[in-house]
Amino acid sequence: MLKKVAGFIEEHDLFSPGDTVVVAVSGGADSVALLDVLAGFSSLRLRLIVVHLNHCLRGAESDADEAFVRELAGKYGVTFVTQAVDVQDLSKREKLSLEEAGRAARYRFFSEIAASCKARAVVLAHHADDQAETVLMRLLRGAGGSGLCAMAAKSAGMYVRPLLSVTRFEIEAYLRERGLVFRTDSSNADVNFLRNRVRHELIPFLKSYNPAITDRLVTTAAALSEDEEILDKVTTEAFNRFGTVEAGRVKFVVAGIATELRGLRLRLYRRAVLQVKGDLTQISARHLNDIDSLLLSASPNSRLVLPEGFTVKRCYGELTFQKHGDASSVPYEFFIEGPGSYPIPGGGLLTVEVAAVPESWDGVPATVAYFDGDGAPFPWLVRTFIDGDVFSPLGMARSKKVKKLFIDKKIPLPFRRRIPLLFSGETLFWVGGVMPATAGRVTASTKLVLRAEILDFTP
């Protein structure tokens, strides 16, 4: 077994000599074997830090597990760190199953310790049987190819699993040979937990069809993992072609990804959600299908609300992934008493200065406008769009609804609520960055010319 583990470590480059590593030890057979194996690899000169999370689920038994691991760490002469978390309470507060809450608490604790001691890796005791169980659990819950890859030798940059190449049978034989004792978690027999049902009921049943089912599942996960490396590279290349990341949002060019294969589109959506949200929890295949329908919809403007405060918006040629409550959509209003620079809530800057009439109106960008200081006297009110706003566009004889202007100019819906509208009294004289009005225009008799410009303003 030691040769298999050493070869696996070398194949996947899990450690370098002298690394500081955090070893997660529950006190069970797998983690006890893991600690002994790592301590025995003297050539690696690893600095081991044993960590143990007390889940507070089994009363005195949980406390006894903690005491056992503390003593075990002492025997190996390594640092021991523990923490107690009321996982039952956590599951209620965060609306998670006990399994999910326990996992979240463990990984949070492991990450904190790793960061505090600048460890290169957090070492977990998952083995081949765990891998087979994980494949089946994800299959039962409904997972695609990436999910069925199950656990990787190295994940999230620092979590490593050097025992994935060995089975539970091999680990138990190793413990007997080494004369090592371990704790048995009574909850491992509780079939109310899905993993325990898979372990104690489903896998034994499947072995009646194929005695080597564990090996077959592990081999399948490994093959899918290799395929996933290729698909991940293709997804990254497509993301870089069609996507942009800015201010906590991801935007895709609709025309670009709409022509790609559906499988790649779904992977791009997953990548976008992960980029903005940080994880894919509660994002199901149904949600990805809904996003795809949004992309392919004939409607140029629509929105989809996903779990945990997440929104996907289709605005003409862009598909945007962002969290609810984006600051860019918050209404605002403020007054301008005279020339100066004024921050626009949500991003951007409005500058106003006394200026001369430009030599030519050709080439003046839409973000710049000139006004008659007497025709549009201060104070100016700057606010966001309200349904019913009307103005008289420069060069037009009739008034026009601002909403109709936005539609004609194909201004995306979220952006409409950010554009600054400038008023003098009750008169709207500039739809900022879009179109000035007849009111306040510069004429031959203008004595005071004011130049307004919007800077660093993006949807």
UniProtKB/TrEMBL annotation:
UniProt superkingdom: Bacteria
Signal peptide: none
Residue stretches making up the Lysidine-tRNA(Ile) synthetase C-terminal domain: 380-452
This protein's record includes keyword DNA damage: no
Gene Ontology, cellular component aspect: cytoplasm
Gene3D superfamilies, per database record: 3.30.465.60, HUPs (3.40.50.620)
Family: Belongs to the tRNA(Ile)-lysidine synthase family.
Protein name (database record): tRNA(Ile)-lysidine synthase
The species this protein was found in: Geotalea uraniireducens (strain Rf4)
Encoding gene (name): tilS
